[in-house]
Design brief:
The chain contains 6 helices and 2 strands, in the order H-H-H-E-H-H-H-E. It has 190 residues and is mostly helical. It has one domain (6-171). Helix 1 (6-52) packs antiparallel against helix 2 (65-93) and helix 2 (65-93) packs antiparallel against helix 4 (116-128). Mean pLDDT is 89; it is low at 184-190. This is RDD domain-containing protein.
Length: 190
């Protein structure tokens, strides 16, 4: 099988990101609204000081403890939604909706068997779990490094999450294109 192009993988990930974002808007929307209400006084005070030419950060009202709890709830729900979207789909078919649209698939390096839950979970761990560290920006940086790694990996163009699960992303044959004939078996028919 041919390896999937970096462009196809990027577009597939972008489609999946937008779908998970849409799920988050639906499921996390109320929590985000409540969080915005909790931190609004802080931003109003900063804006007033900026307009008056004062130091933005002196004597600011503190965000309520509820705001911190809401941040954690929002990140936990976002991570759980991403997990629920990606892991079962990849475990069963090797494809999320984005990969299906782009005609690519995640496969084991050693065989064409389906990935299974364990390997799919291991693949997602490297990319998905750092979402829980977004509050301190470390998670986002880890995710960028993970995804950019495939630009430098040769010859299989694996991201770190592919390396951890021993998977590669391949191009699926397009409908209507000829499949190459299997190689002849020694001493017999093909």
């Amino acid at each position: 099988m041919r390896l999937a192009s970096v462009g196809a993988r990027f577009v597939a990930r972008l489609i999946d990101f937008l779908l998970v974002l849409l799920l988050n808007v639906v499921v996390n929307g109320w929590f985000v609204y409540r969080y915005a209400q909790e931190i609004a006084p802080l931003y109003r005070a900063m804006n007033e000081r900026m307009l008056e030419g004062q130091n933005w950060f002196e004597n600011l009202p503190e965000a309520s403890p509820q705001a911190g709890r809401l941040q954690i709830v929002i990140l936990l729900i976002a991570t759980a939604l991403w997990f629920a979207y990606e892991v079962p789909a990849t475990a069963n078919t090797g494809q999320t909706i984005g990969k299906r649209i782009m005609g690519i698939k995640v496969v084991r390096m050693e065989s064409t068997e389906r990935l299974g839950f364990g390997r799919s979970f291991r693949r997602w761990n490297t990319l998905g779990l750092p979402t829980l560290l977004w509050l301190c920006c470390v998670g986002f940086i880890l995710q960028i490094v993970d995804c950019v790694y495939l630009l430098f990996d040769r010859p299989l163009y694996q991201a770190l999450h592919d390396k951890s699960a021993h998977t590669v992303v391949v191009e699926l044959p397009r409908p209507g294109t000829a499949q190459p004939a299997p190689p002849a078996q020694p001493g017999g028919t093909t």
